[in-house]
Predict the structure.
Amino acid sequence: MRVLFGTVLSFAVLIVLCNAAFYARRARRLRAVAACDVPERLGLFDAAVGFVGECAAAAVAVLLIPIGWCMRPCRPSAGARGPLVLVHGWGVNRGCFWLLRRRLLRDGWSSVCCFNYAPFDATIENAAHRLRRVVDALASEQPGVTLIGHGRGGLVLRYYLRRFPAPNARRVVFLGTRHSVGNERESDARLLSTLNAADRIPLQFDVIAIHSSFDALVPPADGRYPGAFNVEISNVGHYALLFSAKVYHLIAENLAAPLL
């Protein structure tokens, strides 16, 4: 029992310390931003609630990794709203979409597939090549695929849509994805510069970018996608975007909107 308690306590402390480091780095970055571009500061209580929520969400995302190893890639249902593909971000796997997939299936989406790739060592290019095969196979059975990417998974979607023809994709949703070159890894920065050059994705697809001013990993200015329908929220951290009822309401609302 003492060993279990010590393990749980150590895990909780590690999660809190990592998030504290991320938010300290966020504070340093915001001090270098022009005053007119700094997001409105949250009150102490709201910031504390947001921080605790992000720590809890990050812990759940990590604990869901073993669940992700066992999850079926695709879950069919009797819904008639069309297929969806979810692409996770860095450091986790498809398990982080456990709750989001349940909500989408409940709301009548048919096959909801959670695409998986190596979270630490896979390149965005290789992941996009594999994603192409998944989308093509799904679209051959149910045309009109909706794509949702969280964090780095959004870059996988952008590369896929830029590199390959995607006639069966109809709508794309980004959650906490960086769309401007910042302090990410050098390889990702080069790729992002390439993706932003003559980018026509917002002209070809219905694109929604949801980002948070409280995200410690993606600054608000970098979370905005030029040409897309951008939605900024507050008091929700990077991993909390996956579990927040408020964020899911925004996702559901935008997915229910008619295509132009």
